[in-house]
């Protein structure tokens, strides 16, 4: 039996695929969206959002993309970098393709000219060109940064023609220091931290509700261990909860307690040592079992 049927779910609540239906608007996520939307709205040129691995940067990027597209005033797209081994020409061609530049050339000068013309067209249509870049920590080196700076130099007397919003590891900030002029153009920096214990509980409950589950599925002490072992990182929260649902289904448990989370933590290698966890886990399990 799959756990969706056992727990009466309509969808997979803890997939790590960044599905914006499951976006959880925590206070810090809400602030991040407002800051970055301001960068896009005012065409400030360059905004940066950083965060450690698994803190939800990609989900937030996709949510911002969705908001800008729904607005209708933006010509916007998301560029996801998968490796750092690419040339400035490749980057310019990709930006051009995302902005619907036709017949992109292999000559960098021609690509730059075609991109500039397209940005002028977008501006003349009363729209704003905004490119979101995920995994932007892969933008490295003076040559690459100079191309971004060159695009940001495309301005009219009353408007900038393109804005970039970068999402990535904190390494982004270090990379930008290579180009002092570009670094000084960053209008907004926001760091996405881990969720606190209360937010972890709300995050899990939100995803369950979106997936069709209204009734509580985890005990309070289970939530405490989820927060502890995940360190408040959504990617790990998803992994723990996904495995907990499978374990609970196998045990035919209607309510998942701390013992289930402890099994999952052990299986995933998240247990930080018996001496450190014994007290918390024993107390949690005693509460769950009513001892």
TrEMBL record:
Kindly list the GO molecular function terms attached to this UniProt entry: ATP hydrolysis activity
Entry-linked InterPro entries: AAA_22, ExeA_AAA_ATPase_DNA-bind, P-loop_NTPase
Where does the record place the ORC1/DEAH AAA+ ATPase domain? 44-174
Look up the signal peptide feature and give its range.
none
Q: What is this protein called?
A: ORC1/DEAH AAA+ ATPase domain-containing protein
């Amino acid at each position: 039996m799959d756990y969706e049927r056992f727990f009466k779910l309509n969808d997979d609540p803890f997939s790590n695929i960044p599905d914006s239906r499951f976006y959880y608007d925590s206070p810090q996520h809400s602030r991040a969206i407002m800051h970055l939307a301001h960068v896009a709205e005012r065409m400030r040129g360059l905004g940066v959002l950083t965060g450690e691995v698994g803190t939800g940067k990609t989900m937030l990027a996709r949510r911002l993309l969705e908001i800008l597209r729904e607005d209708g005033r933006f010509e916007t797209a998301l560029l996801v970098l998968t490796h750092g081994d690419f040339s400035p020409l490749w980057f310019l061609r990709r930006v051009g393709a995302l902005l619907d530049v036709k017949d992109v050339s292999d000559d960098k000068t021609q690509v730059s000219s075609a991109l500039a013309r397209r940005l002028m067209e977008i501006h003349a249509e009363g729209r704003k060109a905004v490119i979101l870049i995920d995994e932007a920590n892969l933008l490295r080196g003076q040559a690459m940064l100079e191309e971004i700076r060159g695009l940001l130099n495309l301005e009219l007397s009353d408007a900038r023609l393109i804005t970039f919003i970068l999402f990535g590891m904190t390494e982004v900030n270090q990379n930008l220091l290579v180009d002092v002029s570009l670094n000084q153009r960053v209008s907004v920096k926001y760091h996405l931290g881990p969720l606190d214990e209360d937010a972890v509980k709300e995050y899990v409950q939100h995803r369950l509700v979106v997936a069709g589950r209204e009734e509580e599925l985890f005990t309070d002490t289970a939530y405490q261990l989820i927060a502890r072992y995940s360190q408040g990182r959504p990617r790990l929260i998803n992994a723990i909860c996904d495995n907990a649902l499978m374990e609970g289904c196998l045990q035919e448990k209607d309510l998942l307690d701390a013992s289930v989370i402890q099994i999952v933590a052990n299986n995933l290698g998240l247990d930080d040592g018996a001496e450190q966890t014994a007290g918390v886990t024993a107390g949690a399990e005693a509460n769950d079992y009513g001892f």
